[in-house]
Design a protein that fits this description.
The complex is a heterodimer of chains A (300) and B (357). Chain A is mainly α and 300 residues long. Chain A has a single domain, classed as MetI-like fold (Orthogonal Bundle). Chain A contains 14 helices and no strands. The longest helix of chain A has 33 residues. Chain B is α+β, with helices and mostly antiparallel strands and 357 residues long. Chain B folds into 2 domains: 232 residues, P-loop containing nucleotide triphosphate hydrolases (Rossmann fold, 3-Layer(aba) Sandwich); 107 residues, OB fold (Dihydrolipoamide Acetyltransferase, E2P) (Beta Barrel), CATH 2.40.50. In chain B, the strands form 4 sheets. Chain B has a 6-stranded mixed β-sheet with strand order 6-7-8-3-9-10, with helices on both faces. In chain B, helix 2 packs across helix 3, helix 2 runs parallel beside helix 4 and helix 3 packs across helix 4. The radius of gyration of chain B is 25 Å and the shape is elongated. The model of chain B has no long low-confidence stretch (mean pLDDT 91). The chains are: A mainly alpha (300), B alpha+beta (357). The interface between A and B is medium-sized, with 20 and 23 residues. The complex binds adenosine-5'-triphosphate and magnesium ion (MG). Magnesium ion binds next to helix 1 of chain B.
Chain lengths: 300, 357
């Protein structure tokens, strides 16, 4: 014991302790739930067998059931739309704003700071705000559209199956813009000003500077923002809970919400686990691609 | 006289309320190498960046090769700039850095390759073409920055302290190399530096600036021999000129120093008797001698040797520095005599600082 304490007091032992603490934390709070989730997805679990470990092992049967469910196709297509549209527009608008605030004009820093307000609000609150904006009969958006003469009747943003998914996407884009903008602003600020000046003297116009200097030098920040955007978007649960609950009749349902519904509303816990395992596999793949792409970081 | 390649007429530049360049008039002939020198913050970079179009001037006209450049964006000015930080494109290889301007103009690959090879040869980058900037030493990056300018055959080269990030030996070497390149290309160059030795050795025309004003412009030796004012006199030359307050003697053809027992220095020219002046004596023009047979008697404070030369500092006030080629037996505490030839005594007005007589 004395030897152990001595080894902790000199730094080497302390290092080891800290590493084991971190690994222990990861093991208990990340690895165990992950593995347990996979195990459940291979078993038949219902409310009665939930408390015990001895549950019938059914192999990939749960996966076949979930993928064979007619809802699965809708959910998959919705999820793809949700992720792709959200990430593309968050990125485009966030990047545009970052470039805009990169120009030095009076008040640029304060305005940029304002955008953080959207970021620090809980998604449930944002969901509530958007549900007022998007409400069919007394919503702000319909009022504006009608006043401008763009439509003459109310659009039921949240209950019309043709638009409900896009309503959530719009709210999610709004929610994700500040994050994209701030991260990309940091990346832009790291590009030395005189590199742009050199390019300008070499004859590059504004668009050429953007495509030959800014974009290539922003590869790493863009990769990070895209990967994190995909991951955050796949975690977006609160907005669905606040706005559409995946409805009407799964028209706006996505994988993460479906997984929760299966597990905690219909108590098909194995099926819920199957969906979340599939999502984990996808996220891990995204993270791997991202890690690989940042291996060749630029240095100035 | 060659036709002026760069002309500045009454150029002014304001940053808000700050007047950074004040009525700058300058003409630079084709093929000339002009150095802008001055203390930090005097506006050298501002003037150079205005020429490049990276800053817009708030008054006056600026012409390059006869064309008025006010309001013309940098990429239409056909000038190249070498930055102090080099400003290489970090995501491009040396070759891509060199040929960036040609790719923007959609020049064919063979032409680009040929130009890159030529420039690499001139700048000694031959075997580094496929490296990235981060894989180069400071001196090599410097060469890439130069090569990137050379490949364009611009109307003028603008250098902003290009050597200040290099060590002393390499700096001296690159000085010669840049000047040789300039001559070989028949280029017109404007070179900003705060190192007056760099300016004196490289340029055929030196412009001394202070607080946004051109104090004096001329050939290096002219500035050295006939500084127009006390500031230029003190700025050009190393170690710096000694300044001693003095008064013109009754006879009008000599000055009596204040301090140093009222030592009298003959002038070889006539001035108003009794006039108060500041005498400027260059350390290298003061020669050591016997105290009794010299003009000035001084107690020696410090003696420093570099091997080839000795530097003496007087013990009295104001301090006099003496440059002595070779070695000397003089030791601190001794008394020595100093003599200076009449034509080497510079006189300045104590109030305006302007040259007198
Ligand atoms: N963007 C700016 N806004 C306001 N003032 C500026 C700006 N750029 C330069 N200045 C001021 O203009 C003056 C001249 O600056 P400049 O960079 O030309 O000096 P310099 O002679 O190049 O000095 P150094 O030798 O330190 O590089 C300085 O007093 C500086 O503070
Ligand atoms: Mg400068």
């Amino acid at each position: 014991m004395a030897r152990f304490i001595r080894s902790v007091r000199d730094a080497r032992g302390l290092d080891a302790v800290l590493v084991w603490l971190a690994l222990g934390y990861l093991g208990v709070f990340s690895a165990f739930p992950l593995v347990y989730n996979i195990v459940i997805s291979l078993q038949t679990v219902d409310l009665f067998s939930l408390a015990s470990f001895e549950r019938p092992f059914v192999g990939l049967q749960n996966y076949r059931d979930v993928l064979g469910d007619p809802v699965a196709g809708t959910v998959l297509w919705n999820t793809i739309q949700f992720v792709v549209l959200s990430v593309v527009f968050q990125l485009a608008i966030g990047f545009g704003l970052a470039l805009f605030f990169q120009q030095d004009f009076p008040g640029a820093t304060y305005l940029r700071g304002l955008f953080l307000a959207g970021w620090i609000m809980p998604a449930l609150v944002v969901g509530a705000v958007w549900s007022w904006i998007l409400a069919g009969d007394f919503g702000v958006l319909n009022y504006v559209l009608r006043s401008l003469g763009i439509t003459d009747r109310n659009i039921f943003w949240l209950s019309d199956p043709n638009v409900s998914l896009y309503s959530v996407i719009i709210a999610n884009i709004w929610l994700g813009i500040p994050f994209n903008m701030i991260l990309l602003s940091v990346g832009l600020a790291a590009i030395p000003r005189d590199v742009y000046e050199a390019a300008e003297l070499d004859g590059a116009g504004a668009w050429q500077r953007f495509f030959t200097i800014t974009l290539p030098l922003m590869r790493a920040p863009l990769g990070a923002v895209i990967s994190l955007g995909i991951i955050f978007t796949l975690q977006q649960f609160d907005l669905f809970a606040a706005l559409t609950q995946g409805g009407p009749s799964n028209a706006s349902n996505v994988a993460q919400y479906w997984s929760w519904q299966l597990s905690f509303q219909t108590y098909q816990i194995s099926y819920g686990s199957v969906v979340s395992v599939l999502m984990i596999v996808f996220v891990v793949a995204v993270a791997a691609v991202y890690t690989r792409s940042t291996r060749h970081e630029q240095s100035y | 006289m060659t036709s002026p390649q760069i002309e500045l007429e009454h150029v002014d530049k304001h940053y808000g309320h700050f007047h950074a360049l004040k009525d700058i008039n300058l003409e630079i002939g084709k093929g000339r190498f002009v150095a802008l020198v001055g203390p930090s913050g005097c506006g050298k970079s501002t003037l150079l960046r205005s020429l490049a179009g990276l800053e817009s001037i708030t008054g006056g006209t600026m012409k390059i090769a006869g064309e008025t450049m006010n309001g013309v964006p940098p990429r239409r000015r056909d000038v190249a700039m070498v930055f102090q930080s080099y400003a290489l494109y970090p995501h491009m290889t040396v070759k891509e850095n060199l040929t960036y301007s040609m790719r923007l103009k959609r020049k064919p690959r063979e032409e680009r390759d040929k130009a890159a090879k030529e420039v690499a040869e001139i700048t000694g980058l031959g075997n580094l073409l496929d490296r990235y900037p981060r894989e180069l030493s400071g001196g090599q990056r410097q060469r890439v920055a130069m090569g990137r300018a050379i490949i364009r055959h611009p109307k003028a080269f603008l250098f902003d302290e290009p050597l200040s990030n290099l060590d002393a030996a390499l700096r001296v070497h690159m000085r010669k190399e840049i000047r040789a390149l300039h001559d070989r290309l028949g280029a017109t160059s404007v070179y900003v530096t705060h190192d007056q030795v760099e300016a004196m050795t490289m340029a055929d025309h030196v412009v001394v600036m202070r607080e946004g004003v051109i104090e004096q412009a001329g050939a290096p030796l002219d500035l050295y021999d006939h500084p127009a004012n006390r500031f230029v006199a003190g700025f050009i030359g190393s170690p710096a000129m000694n300044f001693v307050e003095a008064a013109v003697a009754e006879t009008g053809d000599a000055v009596a120093l204040e301090g140093y027992d009222g030592a009298v220095l003959p002038l070889g020219r006539k001035l108003e008797p009794g006039r108060r002046v500041v005498a400027g004596l260059r350390p290298e023009h003061l020669s050591l001698g016997e105290p009794d047979r010299s003009q000035i008697r001084v107690g020696v404070g410090v003696v420093e040797f570099t091997g080839a030369a000795s530097y003496l500092s007087s013990a009295g006030e104001p301090e006099l520095t003496v440059f002595h080629a070779g070695r000397t037996e003089v030791r601190p505490g001794e008394t020595v005599g100093l003599t200076i030839a009449p034509q080497h005594v510079h006189l300045f007005d104590p109030e305006t600082g302007r040259r007198v007589g």
